[in-house]
Amino acid sequence: MTWDNTNLFADDKPADLAFRKEVREWMEKNVPLDLCHRPDRLTPADLKPWHRKLYDKGWVAPHWSKESGGMGATLTQQIILFEEMARLGVPTPFPHGLNFFGPILIEAGTPEQKAQHLPSILTGDCTWCQGYSESEAGSDLASLQATAVLEGDHFIVNGHKLWTTNGHHADWMFALVRTDPQAQPRHAGITMLLIDLKSPGITIEPIQTMRGDAEFAQEHFDNVRVPVKNMIGKINEGWKIANMVLGSERFTTGHPRNAAVLLNRTRMMAEISGAIVDPIFRHQLAQLEMDLLAFSAFYHHAAEWHALGKAPMSMAPVIKISGGEIGQKASELLMHASGPIGLLRDNLQTPEGLVNIPADLFEMRRLTVGSGAVEIQRNVIAKRVLELGA
Ligand SMILES: Cc1cc2nc3c(=O)[nH]c(=O)nc-3n(C[C@H](O)[C@H](O)[C@H](O)COP(=O)(O)OP(=O)(O)OC[C@H]3O[C@@H](n4cnc5c(N)ncnc54)[C@H](O)[C@@H]3O)c2cc1C
């Protein structure tokens, strides 16, 4: 392939160039080829050996401080690692322990909690899931109903959690539960608890998605005893603690690589189907590639601002919205470019390995919902940045 959307915007400083070279050389020698460009959904067990290899190299937690066992990397170095893995089509390790819970634990955990959990997150021996959403609490998370009542040195947890990515594979959940039903505002009555998913009283049901596999689970809690020592921070401070990481979660899920890889695939499939000679298709492809180039430039500038501590608060929602929407448009154009074979649910053998076009289409739908729907991100920009409305 001569045209490569994944390389359109490269702006490495000299020190970063050296790091990219080192990463690229190591990745090319060490990535497990059987994991690269896999169209099926991988489980934490599939990823464990790769997680361990990155751990042994010292690169599994680039964003954690060195004192916590991480690499203490700059945001640019973190992005380089992510990009070089994406270039080879090898997945990043599962994010819930490393990216979502680990930073919370480092910031708000007790020394005992850190000693108990940080090492097994780093090695990949323990898998985490995020228990926030419920059937009536998604965008309006503060309305969550799962309760935790303090009895002596334990909380008694009742209720359910929904849409928990990897809930059926995870060992532990970091959960938001209601500890004060009367609190006003509602988010002032929420606490974060660490729940061992092997505790008695927990039922876990995987949920099949339209992609055909189970990404999520639903968990029911029936008088589950959770030791008070598993509370993060203080009682009723869970909302503040949860918000420590949502911004960075949006930053990583909106990376332009998702769309770049799909647009490369779109070009390839259009060559195979013949759509590449259609002027209307070429116009749509060029438009999307220009949008991607503009977004990539913004993303890299945003990383620089972030490193300088000058990032405006609008940045994370803008990245989440733009990355999600371009990714979805790319998956729709890929379906169009593929012609009738794009509708087949089976994996297709192509010059660039196995692809599954419907799986790509379905997978991209998630980007505008997970970790805060784009409509909610627009509300955030309208209210807090543009100061519109009441
Ligand atoms: C791939 C994926 C992974 C996920 N993983 C997890 C996980 O690991 N753990 C977890 O706890 N949750 C997880 N979720 C759940 C996710 O956080 C929720 O789906 C999300 O917050 C939206 O909530 P909801 O599904 O209840 O939709 P709703 O909140 O019911 O929203 C439905 C629609 O209405 C819109 N809407 C709602 N309120 C407003 C408003 N005020 N203004 C304008 N529009 C509005 C929304 O944008 C959306 O389009 C995941 C979701 C996805 C898609």
Report on this structure.
- This protein is 46% helix and 16% strand.
- The protein is an alpha+beta fold and 390 residues long.
- It has three domains: 5-93, Acyl-CoA dehydrogenase/oxidase, N-terminal domain (Butyryl-Coa Dehydrogenase, subunit A, domain 1, Orthogonal Bundle), CATH 1.10.540.10; 128-237, Butyryl-CoA Dehydrogenase, subunit A, domain 2; 254-385, Up-down Bundle (Butyryl-CoA Dehydrogenase, subunit A, domain 3), CATH 1.20.140.10.
- A four-stranded mixed sheet has the order 1-4-5-8. Strands 2-3-7-6 form a four-stranded antiparallel sheet, with no helix packed on it.
- The longest helix is centred in the C-terminal third of the chain and has 29 residues, at 279-307.
- The protein is globular.
- The model has no long low-confidence stretch (mean pLDDT 91).
What proportion of the residues is helical, as a percent range? 40-55%
Note the total helix count: 11
What share of residues are in beta strands? 15-25%
In CATH terms, the superfamily of the largest domain is: Butyryl-CoA Dehydrogenase, subunit A, domain 3
Mean of the pLDDT scores?
91
CATH architecture of the largest domain: Up-down Bundle
Q: What is the CATH C level class of the largest domain, in words?
A: Mainly Alpha
**In sequence order, what are the helices and strands, one letter per element?**
HHHHHEEEEEEEEHHHHEEHH
Query: Gap between N and C termini, in Å?
Result: 52 Å
Task: Give, in spatial order, the strands making up the sheet with the most strands.
Answer: 1-4-5-8
Q: Assign the structural class, choosing from mainly alpha, mainly beta, alpha/beta, alpha+beta, or little secondary structure.
A: alpha+beta
Shape: globular
- Rg from alpha-carbon coordinates: 22 Å
Oligomer: single chain
